[in-house]
Amino acid sequence: MTDFSSALHAAFDAPDPRDAVNRIKNVVAHELSQTDGRATVKKTDFFNHTFAPDLVLSWPNERERFVFLKSDTRPAVLRDDVEAIRKHDPIVFALDPVNENPLDADELGGTPRDDDTLLADSRGMEVLIQSRRNEPVVGLASSAVLQGGRGLLTGREAEAMASSVAAGFNGAQRLDAGATGTAVAQIAGHFDQRRTARLLRFLGAVWVGSGGTPASFPGEQDVTGDLDGAALEFLMELPPIDDFEFWRRIGRPLTLESISQLSVEADSDNLQYLVGSNLDILLARACRIIEHQQELDDSEDSAFRWRLERQMLSLRGPRFTTYFASKVDELRVEPQDGDGIALHELLRRSERRRIPINELELATPTRTVSYATVNRDDISHDEELLRLSATFSSTAHVQTAVASLLGSRPLVCDFPHRTAKGRTAARFPLGTLAPAALSLLTSLTTDEHQALDEVTRHYREEQREVALFEIDEVHVRQSLRTLKPPVSEREDN
Q1: Average pLDDT over residues 236-241
Q2: DSSP SS3 for 403
Q3: Among 303, 300, 258, 297, residue whose Cα is nearest residue 281
Q4: How far is CA 175 from CA 140, 226, 238, in A?
Q5: Which end of the chain, N or C, is less surrounded by CB atoms within 10 Å?
Q6: Among the ranges 97-111, 135-149, 216-230, which has the highest mean pLDDT value?
């Protein structure tokens, strides 16, 4: 007897009938939640009613699904029960094992049913729960079963479905048409059209990500279209897939917005691969740096890792986290107020990454000066700026500066708030924005610079855009000597 069966029998033995009903619903609701952790299970005031459901399943942005609990599993009785409620495309959950399939044909034994009713027993659900523990990819099918599963789902059918989906995923990675085709046929027969399309798009994306073509994908179904959030989330939760080309093919249709909406474990290895392989097409307009205390689980040998927090993609390091967004007002973290930075510090930071500075604003407690050339040239080695800054006291700080990225796209850096944003509608690939913004807005150590190069290594190898940032190193060094700070202010990074 399984744990679920034991709990169900114990619930039936409760002396108070109302207490027994409540316990039965709790046991079934628990099993449904384990089948799909994303589902919200709501109990109703009914039990074993002909037309009113016992439980209601719901998901964000999905339609509800009614669950009817049935204790009489005789085929004729189940057939009559299903006939009364089939227009709702419900889940009929049999509390005892189902030994015969009453859904194969209508009550006259003729035409096969074409509705999306799912008849499941506890053993079928248990098989899916256990299978997803052994093969995480089965979790995508178990979620789809509750949302849009159809037909019969006993232990035997669930075992066939789980093994087929797992084999189909592994087959798609190997471009094995036989195993993938078997999974396609299994999926098409057990899910409604929407869930079938979703699962096939998932397998199709894995097929294409592994080097296949849409035309060679086995089956007649159309598998074109982007992966939805649920499929992407399951990919993130799978064991690490260390394959640059795979994630690059998977990620080409994605945007920063679509990735930011995912619900993924904070330290997903596959999220690192997905973002790291697509730094050239994930575009952001703004970012903000927030200092934080180092956590106990922060690893010293992985200084920067991509994370999803507060519906934003972030890059977390030991001392601070950088949040990225498509719009400034989508930065869902308040800035930490601070002072600006000294001009010599700005020049040191810009030299390290060879980032041209086109204009800046210097301020003292009583004065503000904006400086820029007529042609918006690089001013980081401008002699007039150096002479002007020499007239300011030691209290003068750079409040804002405009850097030029990718040739001519202006990035406005706000140093007191450690926030950077593209001027007007300018957006930047993460592979450009992350190194530039972090290098300008905060003082990185040598180890942090190296870690930043590591986390953006694929972009740097693929794009080869370092030349766009080149400036006159000789003049910058001369500028730094002119603005050499007192010994107490020096910092060797």
Answers
A1: 86
A2: strand
A3: 258
A4: 20, 20, 19
A5: N
A6: 135-149
Q: Which residue has the tokens 């037309």?
A: 51
Distance separating alpha carbons of residues 471 and 168, to the nearest angstrom: 52
Q: In this structure, which amino acid lies at residue 443?
A: S
Residue 62, helix vs strand vs coil: coil
What whole-number distance in Å separates Cα of residue 351 and Cα of residue 472? 9
Residues 89, 192 contacting (CB under 8 angstroms): yes
- C-alpha distances (whole Å) from 442 to each of 78, 334, 449, 452 are 67, 17, 11, 13
> What is residue 369's three-state secondary structure?
strand
Amino acid at 247: W
How far is the C-alpha of 167 from the C-alpha of 164, rounded, in Å? 5
Per mean pLDDT, which range of 24-38, 313-327, 411-425 is the poorest?
A: 24-38
Q: What is the pLDDT of residue 228?
A: 80
| Rounded Cα distance, 366 and 268, in Å | 49
Torsional class of 29: left (φ above 0), alpha (ψ -120 to 50), beta (otherwise): alpha
402 half-sphere exposure, CB direction, 13 A CA radius: 20
Closest CA to 306 of 326, 285, 324, 288: 324
Query: Rg of the chain's alpha carbons, rounded to an integer?
Result: 30
The rounded distance, in Å, linking the Cα atoms of 136 and 317 is 29
**Structure confidence by residue, pLDDT tens digits, 369-425:** 899 887 778 888 888 887 877 777 677 899 999 999 998 899 999 999 999 999 988
Query: Which whole-number Å values give the CA distances from 275 to 152, 238, 395, in the listed order?
Result: 40, 16, 41
Given a contact cutoff of 8 angstroms between Cβ atoms, the answer to whether 331 and 448 are in contact is no
Mean pLDDT across the stretch 269-294?
94
Per DSSP, the three-state class of 153 is strand
- pLDDT bin (cut points 50, 70, 90) of residue 64 is very high
Q: Which of 235, 285, 234 is nearest to 256 (CA)?
A: 285
